[in-house]
Amino acid sequence: MSRHVVAPTSEIPQGGRKLFHVKGRPIAIFNIGNEFFGLLDRCPHQGGSLSAGIITGLLQSPEPGKYSYTRKGEIVRCPWHGWEFDIRTGQSYCDPARIKTRAYPVSTEPGTTVVKGPYLAETVPVRVEEDYIVVEV
Amino acid sequence: MNVQVRPAPATPAASRIAIADCDIHPYTRSKAAFDPWLPARWREHVSQFGSPRRLGMEKGPAYPKSQPNAARRDAYPPEGGPQGSSPSFMVAHHLEPNNVALGILNPLNAGQGVSNPELSAALCRAANHWQEEVWLSASPALRASIVVPYEYPELAVAEIGRWAGRKGFVQVLLLSRTAEPLGNRRYWPIYAAAEEAGLPVAVHAFGYGGGPITSSGWPSFYIEEMTGHAQSCQAGLSSLVIEGVFERFPKLKLLMVEAGFAWAPSLAWRLDKTWRTLRAETPHLTMAPSEYIRRQVWWTTQPMEEPEPREHLLDTIGWIGWDRLLFATDYPHWDYDDPAHALPLKLTPTQRQQFFFENARAVYGLDA
Fold first, then answer.
1. pTM
2. Mean pLDDT throughout B265-277?
3. Which residue of B1, B133, B258, B365 has the fewest C-beta atoms within 10 A of its own C-beta?
4. A79 to chain B, minimum CA–CA distance in Å?
5. What is the ipTM for the molecules in this complex?
């Protein structure tokens, strides 16, 4: 495992997402309330690109006629067949025990820390006054 | 809405098996896309009176499709316009990366099912010109469907006559929800013309028959429409068999497109069982229903059933026949099947070759 600086935090606004390639892997990074999460950008069903899906919430119903809509902005739907994944964990909604897309640990680090290393930031110019998104791959 | 173009698959096309994709949907870039081939008389008519279909108060499909234009959110052309509307992007996004060596175009919303007979015919003709000039020129892999105003069989026959034998046109396209069941004798002239021209008839799910879209009325949910294509297409296929279409037109090739296929064995079993007891009702049938189906019907694969365990699919395909299924992706639609992932099963090299290419070549009689 190594830690990679992929972008300044300002590059992904709240509710946004962006696709990066780290060590040859496509990784979709999501910003939920300024917490960042990384998922392998490949739906385990047929390989759709999750970073191109819509971000939505969790719609559930305890019984017919009653609904709850929670966790707004924390679920991504594959742009192909609509399979739903928990952005925080990569688990699928329909079959969480068996079907998930790989989640990568993501943190944010101040530029002052990043410049000291040992992060890999070949393609991202780092400035001490900014914060950065760091993915562990 | 956030939209991002999907990067091309990492595997270079050359290392992938060449495939036939028997259900690709080209879309119009704008409402004016057919104008170059539509007489002014009909352009004015459309702008003044529209082109209503046999669907009561509906302006489009009866059920919203859950994704914009019923298509993948990652398939918007970079130059703008809806998914599937750019020939060059279709080549770069789908045909090349997936190594599609033969791609069958099935234009929907192309004037079929429009209530005004002559307008329906004019729109279908424009759609055929549009395919020839805009799409066939985009890639040597692409082939066109002759779109016909099937509710007006004499006009449909004229359209078949105009395009049959024209380079690149390989089948006659109908939609599944016709005003009468598909085997009804009012449609026979279409089957006669297709048989004579040596063109398969492809019946694509959907359409505008005007009746409720399930056999027990209008459902509440889109998922019921999606699943219901299987029953609607079973009714259509039963009608084709029982009315004697295959008896009368023994060289006709019929393709069921986007209707699922796992239902095919059980339908054939049930038809055969009932035919044995009621044979005298339909003496015009000289052999068991399943024999007509085995002789003259093929299915495209998408949207493929996904049983658990997946091996059930191998049994099902075995019952139907490995020579009967034509691979299809349905690009750019949202329920697209990816050729690299849609059939995650161990196949013999012969099965794989048949499934992904040879069956299509056999049906279309192409030297592709």
1. 0.89
2. 97
3. B1
4. 5
5. 0.74
